[in-house]
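INFO batch 0412 | record 1 of 1 | parsing
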Amino acid sequence: MPTVVDETTDLLQHLIRNRCVNDGTPASGHEIRSVETLESYLRIPGVEMKRYEPSPGRGSLVVRIEGSDPKAPSLHLMGHTDVVPVTPSGWRHDPFGGELIDGEVWGRGAIDMLDVTASMAVAVRNLLVGGFRPKGTLVYSAVADEEALGTWGAKWLTENAWDDVKCDYLVTEFGGARFPLGGGTKLPIMTAEKGSQWTRLRVRGTPGHGSMPYRSDNALVKASELVTRIAKYKAPLHLEGLWKRFVGSIDLPAVQRMALTNAATFDAALDRMPAGADRMMYAATRTTFSPNVARAGTKLNVIPDSAEIDVDIRLLPGDEGDGVRSMLADAAGDLWKDVEIVEEGDNPATSSKIETPLWDALTTVTQRLIPGSTTVPFLIVGATDARFFRRRGVVAYGYGLMSERIPFGEFSKLFHGNDERVDQDTLALMTPLWEGLVREIAA
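INFO prediction complete | emitting tokens
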């Protein structure tokens, strides 16, 4: 007879094989494929499901089970079904094969975040099949377009179908990876996330003939120097608030704890951090700038008079707007006179309170599944759909539970990387985590 792990594995494999690749264009994603998979899986007598397709193929599914007590707290388990593109030549196995190899499920989205989406669905189905009826309303959703801007998914739902997705507490991606610092098992609950201010810069030059490059005003050459300067730039540190609380909760030696909360010693202390933890801790304490796309030139024998650079800027509270522009100017130095900002995003950082019944419930269930573990607050350095709900007053966290099988340093590289996979030991923790959480909050 199939186990819960078998069931979760099978559903995860189906979601991977659906190839819901979101390249950021409206015609990509095709998340309706996974809506149909999940709708079929969750079809239980008496359970109301709604599908939404605000743009062709960009589908989301919402299951809402109204609670018996309107005053009881409501809980929303939210996953997304879209995944980022892949370069198949960099993979050891088919990125959309969903193969089970040595206890690991391989494929794009295995970690980000189809494992969570699948395990949440299995937990909800098992509860309902077993006769569970919540006191507080329970919502499960599998949404489109998280890997772009949420336009056709969570953002659309919160703006157009709020009565179907509203809740008091929400959990989505991602935490619960065993942080390789301090004593004992430390499991981060993501109570906040950075914002973004994606920016397009245009570098001006002077056109000329490609046969005479000496002393030319080549916009591409200046742009390449600008890219290097931005990539090397270190923004001012933020070592207060959530960061100080995190450092204080992971049982570090006093000297190390002081080094990680002092701007004068932080970077030296960061260099001694374990692989994977160093990159995450850097991103959690600074606004970051990653120049990821460049365009220039019209013809091979024409010196370009214009070049554009797209910079992925992830910001901490207080750095948005003019703060980011000031840092870009600081990074560019004397090149700034030839640079203009032609586009910039506006996505402020968001956070939720830590002292909440949701924190307590996640901690209780976690300690039941991993005895002796400690939950600690942390900041997710990417973006999730939680932001749309926080802006509506919902307490929203990112969480999950990872086994020890994939080391933290390797695990952190799997997000949007090659050879993405998740082990079945992790799936064996995920499904009971969600079942236990529902019983703690909505029972």
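INFO post-check: The chain has 15 helices and 19 strands.
INFO record closed
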